[in-house]
Write a structure and sequence with these properties.
With 158 residues, this protein is of the alpha+beta class. The chain has one domain: Alpha-D-Glucose-1,6-Bisphosphate, Chain A, domain 4, CATH 3.30.530. Helix content is 23%, strand content 49%. Strands 1-7-6-5-4-3-2 form a 7-stranded antiparallel beta sheet, with helices on one face. Helix 1 crosses helix 2. The longest helix is centred in the last third of the chain and has 21 residues. The mean pLDDT is 89.
Length: 158
């Protein structure tokens, strides 16, 4: 085996109920202005370097930014399936300071419930080389996004 060349697989499912109608939760992902209002780490970034938003099957989203006193993170996602108010499926790649970190498949499910929307994020990722132990960090980062979405839906801000 080549030293330092490894693969690791990680998967997780996170669910949360939001006290907002399904259309409102959906729009937080499907409308660019809405997504820009909550997506990412907010003040943790000192500079956004690239942003692209193309919400359609085959469309590509890009989010690249530099953390304060830290690395440049690059996210590139392709939408593979979209069913309005029901599900979004993407494949995406992450880079850290130009080094390919991971490839993932993520499904986002939206279900109406009494008083709002049940949201479920399920992800399966492959982590490369020195990032092979980063699956736990990805789950924590996704929890942070889900919390940011919750704050946005209830207060209109991060």
């Amino acid at each position: 085996m080549t030293t330092g060349r490894r693969l690791a697989r990680s998967g997780f499912t996170l669910s949360r109920d939001y006290p907002a109608p399904i259309e409102r939760v959906w729009d937080a992902f499907a409308d660019e202005a809405e997504k820009l209002s909550w997506w990412g780490a907010g003040d943790a970034f000192e500079e956004t370097r690239e942003w692209a938003f193309d919400f359609r099957v085959g469309g590509i989203d890009i989010a690249e930014a530099k953390f304060h006193n830290g690395p440049v993170s690059r996210y590139v996602a392709t939408y593979t399936d979209i069913v309005q108010h029901n599900r979004i499926v993407t494949t995406y790649d992450m880079w850290l300071d130009g080094e390919h970190m991971s490839t993932s498949v993520a499904s986002l499910e939206f279900d109406p419930v009494d008083g709002g929307t049940s949201f479920t994020h399920t992800e399966h990722g492959v982590f490369f080389d020195r990032f092979w132990e980063d699956g736990v960090g990805r789950e924590q980062g996704t929890k942070g996004l889900i919390e940011a979405l919750g704050r946005y839906l209830t207060t209109g801000s991060r």
